[in-house]
Design a protein that fits this description.
The complex is a heterodimer of chains A (376) and B (278). In chain A, 45% of the residues are buried. The longest helix of chain A is centred in the middle third of the chain and has 27 residues. Chain A has 14 helices and 4 strands. Chain A starts with a helix and ends with a helix. With 376 residues, chain A is mainly α. By secondary structure, chain B is of the alpha/beta class. Chain B has a 6-stranded mixed beta sheet with strand order 6-7-8-3-9-10, sandwiched between helices. A 4-stranded antiparallel beta sheet of chain B has the order 2-1-4-5, covered by helices on one side. In chain B, helix 8 links the parallel strand 7 and strand 8. The chains are: A mainly alpha (376), B alpha/beta (278).
Chain lengths: 376, 278
């Protein structure tokens, strides 16, 4: 009997939260690559002379920075899809809202250097003949305010949307459809000039961020590093979430929601919590993306973008976090390569990729690698 | 509810306004001084005109092991749905102890107050280990924020250990629940119920699809649990019911047909008729 008790005690994981990355080889590799990139890429760009074969052009740095933003969006999507089973076809909306919040700050930084030279009003408002700044543009001349809004606006939309949807127990394909409708509705709204976000031209012609010229190589490198750090930190946040008891409840909701509810968990609140966190991370990704591409317009809300994000996660490997981040970066890299050769073919390739992943390797690239690892 | 109905509701003189009724709190505790722990009185549930429960009245005593049998469609599952708050009856009363009105509580509150239910089909969390399944079921705070920082205490670990022993899965603690055999999943489910320290265990068809050895172990387990908990078992398998039952209730067409020991019930001509047909 005594011996029995001892074995039983040993079965229970001792202090499961002690080591965050314990047993997470993929996560360690991802963070290792990120750390290396954050150190090496700036050196290769800023210190190595331009004619050296090791020089990384500023264009390439910005491109990589964008991939990191997409990886962050994929990570956020994986948190809700891979772990909570909520297939969102509207995460692009949170990404775009974060981007708009950052874009508004960048617009206000232009000051009187715009075409019309108005010290307060952005060009498009002068063009539309507006007299004064709409109230929702107040505060965006401060970086801290914009940074807050980058998280708060997508978070709030996510919270309201999720509160309505999860409380009414909208799940599965219905939730996917309404999330898609949400981003589509926002796209139509943002296309309208009256909305006050620059209509179909969006926000562009940014000059500087925090006083640094936005096109300077140094700023580009800093933005790239910020994206890398944001991705790394978000990975750790997501990892903390999925390793906690909250993460186990959320996975339980994914596998058997009625059962979780019967255990006394308010599953809608758990879903809402994870959904809102995911929306905020997506907003962060969008905010880092906009200064690197130099424009944000309503097409970022397009449903296609959100669907593409789902494909990234599926290709990378759903429910692994690092796999999703990998997918986000790799698929976009592939897109850059392919668009250079055969621009029209890209959407077919993307579609084929999704079908192939679903049919032949449902666990994505990560699953493929793991199987290799087990086989040898 | 239209404004007219609302007004009428306010004008009713046979009841006080909701707002002056004492708020019901789970912490008020369970009052079983009068014996029964579950009271169902005149409970009627109808779906599209079909009466699944027809003025059902049933009392379950504290610490009792009660088997409920009845042909298909007798209302056994609906009864459990009413007790656990999944289905609202058209009228009738359902009380947990003397103080807790089940009809004014939702599913989650009822589960937290101490009524655990094992579903017909074993639903464990397949991608969690056995110990994690038990940990999720453990009584304790259920809030989102507290779950984020929750750690397994030594006490909790002991509790998981003892339940693992109780349900005979001590060896399988680290396996994924999805890999367990059918019988083991059923026991794990019962273990998950036990983790919630329930006063009442509602067990729906525990031995469906089990081998004879597994059935014997289940019978042993349920008998052991009675006394510390009130156990209500709904089961089709007569042999199994005979092996555990002290008190049997026969349901038929949504109402109690007969109640008593297994022998009494089996010799009741109405029961024989229902089971063997006209």
């Amino acid at each position: 009997m005594a011996a029995n008790e001892i074995t039983a005690t040993r079965l229970i994981p001792q202090a499961p939260h002690r080591r965050l990355l314990h047993g997470d080889l993929g996560g360690r590799i991802l963070l290792g690559i990120l750390a290396a990139m954050i150190v090496v890429v700036p050196v290769l760009n800023l210190m190595v002379p331009a004619d050296s074969p090791f020089h990384v052009s500023t264009y390439a740095v910005t491109l990589m920075g964008r991939y990191l933003c997409f990886a962050l969006l994929a990570l956020a999507l994986d948190l809700v899809w891979g772990y909570c089973g909520i297939l969102s076809l509207g995460h692009g909306a949170f990404f775009a809202l974060g981007g708009y919040a950052m874009g508004m700050y960048l617009m206000r930084q232009i000051g009187d250097r715009g075409v019309y030279g108005d010290p307060v009003l952005p060009d498009f408002m002068v063009f539309l003949g507006w007299e004064k700044l709409p109230w929702f543009w107040y505060g965006f001349d401060h970086f801290w305010f914009a940074a807050l809004m980058v998280l708060a606006v997508p978070g709030l939309l996510g919270f309201v949307f999720g509160w309505l949807a999860f409380r009414s127990r909208v799940t599965g394909v219905y939730l996917s459809i309404i999330s898609q409708a949400m981003t589509y509705a926002l796209m139509l709204a943002f296309f309208r000039n009256e909305m006050g976000f620059g209509g179909n031209n969006g926000l562009t012609d940014f000059k500087d961020i925090l006083g640094f010229s936005i096109s300077a190589p140094g700023t580009r490198v800093a933005l790239f590093m910020a994206s890398g750090l944001a991705l790394g930190a978000s990975y750790l946040i997501c990892r903390t979430i999925v390793r906690s008891r909250l993460g186990r409840v959320v996975t339980a909701v994914r596998d058997a929601e009625p059962r979780t509810r019967s255990l006394g968990y308010r599953t809608d609140r758990y879903k809402l919590w994870v959904w809102t966190v995911s929306a905020m991370l997506s907003g962060l990704a969008g905010a880092l993306y906009v200064p690197q591409v130099g424009i944000i317009n309503p097409s970022e809300f397009s449903p296609l973008n959100s669907i593409e994000a789902v494909v990234w996660v599926a290709v990378g490997g759903r429910g692994t976090l690092y796999g999703a981040a990998l997918g986000g970066a790799l698929v976009n890299y592939a897109q850059t390569l392919l668009t250079a050769w055969l621009a029209e073919l890209w959407l077919f390739v993307l579609g084929a990729l999704f079908v192939a992943v679903t049919l032949f390797f449902p666990r994505g690239l990560v699953g493929l690698l793991r199987r290799r690892g087990d086989g040898s | 509810m239209s404004w007219l109905e609302t007004t009428r509701e306010v004008m009713r003189r046979d009841q006080v306004f909701d707002l002056v009724r004492p708020a019901q709190s789970v912490s008020a505790g369970l009052d079983t001084r009068h014996g029964p722990i579950l009271y169902l009185e005149d409970v009627t549930v109808s779906f599209d005109g079909f009466r699944a429960l027809d003025e059902l009245t049933l009392y379950i005593d504290d610490g009792e092991l009660r088997c409920i049998i009845g042909p298909n469609g007798a209302g056994k599952s609906t009864m459990m749905d009413v007790i656990t708050g999944r289905t609202r009856p058209d009228h009738g009363a359902a009380w947990f102890g003397q103080r807790l009105d089940l009809l004014r509580m939702d599913e989650t509150e009822i589960a937290r107050a101490g009524i655990g239910r094992k579903f017909q089909k074993p639903t464990v969390f397949p991608n969690h280990r056995v110990v994690e399944n038990l940990e999720l079921a453990m009584a304790g705070p259920r809030g989102v924020w507290s779950a984020l920082g929750a750690r397994l205490t030594g006490e909790g670990r002991d509790r998981i250990d003892s339940v693992l022993e109780e349900i005979g899965l001590g060896e399988a603690g680290h396996e994924l629940a999805g890999k367990l055999s059918h019988g083991q999943k059923q026991w794990l489910e019962i273990g998950m119920l036990l983790m919630q320290n329930p006063r009442v265990l509602l067990v729906d068809e525990p031995v469906a699809g089990m081998t004879h050895q597994e059935m014997d172990r289940t019978a042993e387990l349920l008998t052991r649990l009675a006394g510390r908990h009130s156990v209500v078992v709904v089961e089709h398998d007569m042999e199994f019911v005979r092996s555990i039952a002290r008190q049997v209730t026969v349901l038929h067409q949504g109402a109690v047909l007969a109640e008593g020991s297994m022998d009494e019930v089996q010799s009741d001509p109405r029961v024989v008729e229902v089971y063997l047909g006209e």
